[in-house]
Amino acid sequence: MLGYKRFIQRAISCALFVGTLVCAPAAWAVPAYDKLKDGNFGTVSAKLVNSSGGNYTYLFTVTDTSNSPIKGVLVYGPDDPIGMSQPPRTSTQVQKNHGYAWWDMDGPTSYYLQPGQQAPTNRTELTFTLTYNHPIDITQLCFAFHVVGSAKNDPGAFFRANSLVCGQVICQESDGTSHGIPNASVALVNANNLAQVYSTTTADANGNFTLTPPGPGDYEVCATAANWGTNYSTPFHFVSNGCDLCVNVILTPLPINTLASNDIFGMAYFRDSPGYQAWASTTVVTNEDGNFTQLRNPANTFDQNGNHTYPFKGYIPHHEELGHFGGPGEPKVWVELVQPLQSETGYSGHSFVNLIGVQDGIGQAADHTLAPFTLKFVSTLPFAGPGTAFNVNTTGVNVIFHTSNPIQPNAEATLTDMPVALTNGNNLPSSLPPPHVLPPGYMNRALVRMRVPYAMSWTAFVTTTFQNVCGDNGTVTVDPVVPGPQ
Predict the structure, then answer these.
(1) Which residue positions in the chain have pLDDT lower than 50?
(2) Per-residue model confidence (pLDDT) at position 200
(3) Residue 24 and residue 95 in contact, taking contact as beta carbons nearer than 8 Å
(4) Are 193 and 260 in contact (CB under 8 A)?
(5) Alpha-carbon distance 421 to 443, whole Å?
């Protein structure tokens, strides 16, 4: 700020602006900012409203909080604008050597900004903008007013605008970059008693805010937002007249926790081999309703039912494209239930559930006892918060076969996204979060398909990526070891 003060104290004479030489008459010479009088006429705030074509336009919102009309508005700053709005019935000039831009409304007095009015909010014709060929630091701007008295030909005087507290609520990413947090809740509080709140506001789409303190004193700014923690600025001392005091508040994203057990549970193999037929129970297991209820019964597992397989009737879960089995004139198949199948609409405590294997060659006369299997299982990853996960994607599956042969078989592994579910297994609400956004309590699901040789154990690495609200990346990889089908 000291460098800026030296800048605005340079001598004033004339300025060349947009090809026009503008000279301020001696009677209207504007003092340097530090020579202005203190006043209590109103406030000015600045924000970026357009950045295109290499130019940056800033809008100045002016509020008359006094009992006197405001004739002119001045913006002091170290950067030279290349453009200036031209409100009707308003003289404009930029004095580059003196470091200010000036809008001065012509008479009658009724055209001035009146007490209680805010431009351009309820005086749309009074739109004050400056355009620069580069972004500027608005914390380096200071503001003033030209106010005239009631006497005829009174040239008036120049007064500092009342100060505001301004700033930006930002997040800082892990790579050091930062950006504004939209719609953050912001409060001005007593630095010596944080529970004492003086004023509140909501940050704009870029995280910018302004607050009006009740008077000189020691303050802090408190900010919070959805998916963020709460944080405070450093304490600061505020004076009523002077340049706006700008402070930033850095918020930290709420952490994102996931539930991963790194195992698989729920396993059934479908074959028509002679061994499966020899072990068969007389009980037929069905899946006609598509809910595989009988396949979820622990009493039907191989080690609980006397080492029996079951004749199967219906559609094989997740292999419905193979058609219906067990009916008149249809292929016959037998199922070995190694582990009871689990619910897929809620988290059962296992990262992978319901491994369903179907051996090649079902219904064929040729011997296929040692034929490979097509396996499908569901990858489940619950998000436990407290922060919401964004850009959630199950991005890949990699399979390693546990074999001494250096040439590994091709698992032909693929992924298919499944609809999200609630971790607790309840029905989904009517209003769902956007795609790939998982608040706490939601579970990401994907169907994994792969090819496995007979009796070959394997490990599948399933990777899910996501981001927190600030854009930092997170990754979870689940990789249980699974015995081979036989």
Answers:
(1) 1-27, 151-152
(2) 97
(3) yes
(4) no
(5) 5
CA dihedral 154, 155, 156, 159 (to 10 degrees): 180
- Provide the pLDDT for residue 486: 63
Reading the block at residue 394, the tokens are 């199950």
Contacts of 486 (CB under 8 A, 6+ apart): 454, 455
- 3-class secondary-structure state, position 401: strand
Give the CB-side neighbour count of residue 417, counting CA atoms within 13 A. Answer: 11
Q: DSSP states of 202-222 as a string?
A: E--TTSEEEE--SSSEEEEEE
Concatenate the DSSP letters of all residues of 221-277 into one string.
EEEE-TTB--EEPPPEEE-SBSSPEE--EEE-BPPEEE-----EEEEEEEE--HHHH
Residues whose CB falls within 8 Å of the CB of residue 431, separated by 6 or more in sequence, listed in order? none
- Angle at the Cα of 377 from the Cα atoms of 450 and 308, rounded to 5 degrees: 100
294 DSSP 8-state letter: G
- Does this chain's domain 2-160 share its CATH topology with 165-252? yes
Contacts of 63 (CB under 8 A, 6+ apart): 42, 43, 44, 117, 118
Which numeric CATH code is attached to 165-252?
A: 2.60.40.1120
- Record the tokens describing residue 160, joined without a space: 């500092």
Enumerate the β-bridge partners of residue 186: 201, 223
Q: Which of 436, 435, 433 is nearest to 391 (CA)?
A: 436
Phi, psi of 215 (to 5 degrees): 165, -175
Return the bridge partners of 309, or none.
280
Q: Rounded to whole angstroms, how far apart are CA atoms 398 and 461?
A: 5
CB 220 within 8 A of CB 258: no
Give dist(CA 266, CA 446) in Å, integer.
16
Spatial neighbors of 378 by CB under 8 A, at least 6 apart, are 318, 344, 352, 353, 354, 418, 445, 446, 447, 448
Instruction: Map out the domains of the chain as residue ranges.
Output: 2-160, 165-252, 258-482
Cα–Cα distance measured from residue 485 to residue 375, given in angstroms and rounded to the nearest whole number = 9
List Cβ neighbours of 429 (8 Å cut-off, separation of 6 or more): none
Q: How much of the chain is in helix, strand and coil states, percent to nearest 5?
A: 5, 45, 45
E strand or H helix that includes residue 378: strand 373-386
Secondary structure letter of residue 161 according to DSSP: P
Burial of residue 46 (number of CB atoms within 10 Å: 0-12, 13-18, 19+): buried
Q: What is the pLDDT of residue 482?
A: 86
The CATH homologous superfamily for domain 2-160 is Mu homology domain, subdomain B (2.60.40.1170)
The model carries a pTM of 0.77
